[in-house]
């Protein structure tokens, strides 16, 4: 009976995040915009980030998809705002490991996203759960690549 109540609690948190997602809706003035889709099921996410001085100051998203995909995006934005880029990338890696059924040392750091650990039992849903997190990684990593290219152009001009 206790397991059933716990399952119901997990489902309720997922439904709450998907029905009333945190940080949903796009804004002007954010520094990064990434759009990814999951061609397997049709989930689409557009992620915006505001990164200043290596800190994720804001994260917003829009898109459409299943409850797992939308809940995960909501949970991801909650988890990464206020984190450094490195911390955000570590969270993304931990989340990826978690939903693949691997051990993660600090579940608390993932916040509500730790609830999605059960996705590992449904391999077809892993891509749904990781879509927003992959967009986060892409946004941070592309920014670093652009910064490196800009720096190289400046050095070559001198």
Order of helices and strands: HEEEHHH
Which class best fits the helix and strand makeup?
alpha+beta
CATH architecture: Alpha-Beta Complex
What is the percentage of strand-forming residues?
15-25%
- Percent helix range: 40-55%
Please count the beta strands (DSSP E, at least 2 residues each): 3
CATH class: Alpha Beta
Mean pLDDT: 88
Alpha carbon gyration radius: 17 Å
Biggest β-sheet description:
3 strands, antiparallel
Per the CATH scheme, the topology name is Sufe protein. Chain: A
**Largest beta sheet: what is the strand line-up?**
1-2-3
Total helical segments: 4
Label the overall shape. Answer: globular
Query: Low-confidence stretches at least 5 residues in length (pLDDT < 50)?
Result: 147-158
Distance between the termini: 71 Å
- The structural domain count equals 1
